[in-house]
Amino acid sequence: MIQTSGVIICLGYIFGLLFTAVPWGGVWILVLGIVGAIFFRRRTTLRPFAQKPENAGSKNKAWQTTPHPRIWLAAGLVGLLATLYFQLRVPQPGAKDISQFVPAGNSSNQEQLVIVRGKVASNPRLTRSQRGQFWLETTQIDEVKNDKGSAGVPKGVTGKLYVTVPILQATGLYPSQEIAVTGILYKPRVASNPGGFDFQKFLKQEGTFAGLIGRQINVLEQERKWGWWQIRERIVRSQVRWLGIPEGPLVSAMVLGSKAVDLPYDIRDLFVQAGLAHALAASGFQTSLILSVILQLTRRASKGTQFTLGLLALIIFLSLTGFQPAVLRAVIMGFAALVGLLLKRKVKQFGSLLLAATLLLVFNPLWIWDLGFQLSFLATLGLIVTVPALVNRLAWLPPAIAA
């Protein structure tokens, strides 16, 4: 009863977020909850009169497992609150956001140079146009009036910028480094064709409302602050040194994911064309491999030791790959498997998947429309649903081959 109630409420929350794409979606999900409550109320009131004395015990047992009408009403209310929560979490530019200082005309071709100061928030990556790209947490902006430099009073700003610069300018940058970028501010455009890439929507999901076409970078602070990016960089460099290029970056991407490793786009495209794009995404495969190795090496140790070492390995893996939806989903499900091992209980895969989805969407409801989040959960759900049925159909084969 408790498990069924939890599943219904979690699904109510997820469907509430999905209904944000529909006008008055929260009201519709509440109506569905009310309809479900009315239907099950009638069903539970009619069932006792339809029982036969000899089967009363089994009937009552089946009746008690039916979700109470209040559960459906609660799921509808949770779905309604989910739509409101989603609207509250949608990023909005503040009064001093850097996007407020984009020149009138909203064009990336307008030659109004500015100097933006801030801290690098990510490792530089190579774009398809062979430019370096990184995120910049802005603190100050100054307009360039003439060729001699800046003029006027610098203004304090907030917000994050999508910065692209010539590749040589981005070389050597690292997170938390303070820099000043000279370039042109612009606001992103929406998709020009239906179903096309919506650059404005992409930046908005990242909490960004403007971009900067950089021309020159001046480094203001050279001090290196420790971060997981340093360990990731050493791993990539060692694999490149021993395996060469492109084998080194490719192996790093298969271990840490292409979002953590700057893999050239021509290699990514080849994997996409071969239908192996998932091999470059950090998700359940790496998590399962890590846990399998840890549990195999510690098979003679106590359950508590296995749980501690497995949890530590998952935390290190998550820190190296970054807080991506697919990785978080895999880590939460891996943690559920460790808890089941510690308590000597079998973990239901569908329940752990649903719990992982709910926790992640509570943390960030905007991920409901993130393609990586959707593909990760739907692919895992497809495996959970189809694999047991396929294995049963192949029962005439040896178990290892059937699995």
From TrEMBL:
Primary location recorded for the protein, binned into one broad class: membrane
Membrane topology: Multi-pass membrane protein
Membrane-crossing segments per the record: 6-39, 276-297, 304-320, 326-343, 350-369, 375-396
Pfam families: Competence (PF03772), DUF4131 (PF13567)
Domain DUF4131 residues, every copy: 22-219
Domain (ComEC/Rec2-related protein): residue spans on this chain: 255-400
Keyword rRNA processing: no
UniProt keyword list: Cell membrane, Membrane, Transmembrane, Transmembrane helix
Record flagged with keyword Zinc-finger: no
Cellular localization per UniProt: Cell membrane
Record protein name field: Competence protein
Organism whose genome encodes this protein: Nostoc cf. commune SO-36
